[in-house]
Amino acid sequence: MIVLDSDVLIDLLRQHSAAIAWLDSLNDQEIALPGFVVMEILQGCRNKVEQEKIERVLADFEILWPSSETCSDALHVFAQTHLSHGIGLLDALIGQTAVALGLPLYTFNQRHYSAIQGLTALAPYVR
């Protein structure tokens, strides 16, 4: 299973050639999105038509939600690192969700995610 962060998903939605080539190279691997990533994408919609289009595209992906234990772990990570590493609330939740599942997170935001112990944050392609 492949877990994507918002920045990678945005590149795919915008049909960037490097992102599409990477996606094609995955063959039949399942792609999952943390629910908070989906919410970030929907937050960027400018109108209802755009939102409905995005919702149709995202309907094909599995949505991952953290357990209450994972949320507690994310709170701890956030409290310990938001000042020193600039990690955001949603990044703590997204990263900790990937950790709880034992999966790498594909993102270009390695700097923020470096504060989360046990998380493997990978850049999927060269921008």
Please describe the structure with a list of short key phrases separated by commas or semicolons.
about 130 residues; alpha/beta; Rossmann fold; five-stranded parallel beta sheet; about 55% helix; about 10% strand; globular
Secondary structure layout:
Elements lengths: L1 E3 L1 H8 L3 H9 L5 E4 H9 L4 H11 L3 E3 L3 H18 L3 H13 L3 E2 L3 H4 L7 E2 L5
The major sheet is characterized as: 5 strands, parallel
CATH architecture: 3-Layer(aba) Sandwich
The number of distinct structural domains comes to: 1
Q: What's the quaternary structure here?
A: single chain
What proportion strand? Answer: 5-15%
Global mean pLDDT: 96
Distance between the termini: 22 Å
And the CATH topology?
Rossmann fold
CATH class: Alpha Beta
How are the strands of the biggest sheet laid out side by side? Answer: 3-2-1-4-5
Task: Note the overall shape.
Answer: globular
- H-E string: EHHEHHEHHEHE
* Category by helix and strand content: alpha/beta
> What value does the Rg take, in angstroms?
14 Å
Q: Which parts are unreliable, with pLDDT below 50 for 5 consecutive residues or more?
A: none
Let me know the CATH homologous superfamily. 5'-nuclease
| SS field, number of helical segments | 7
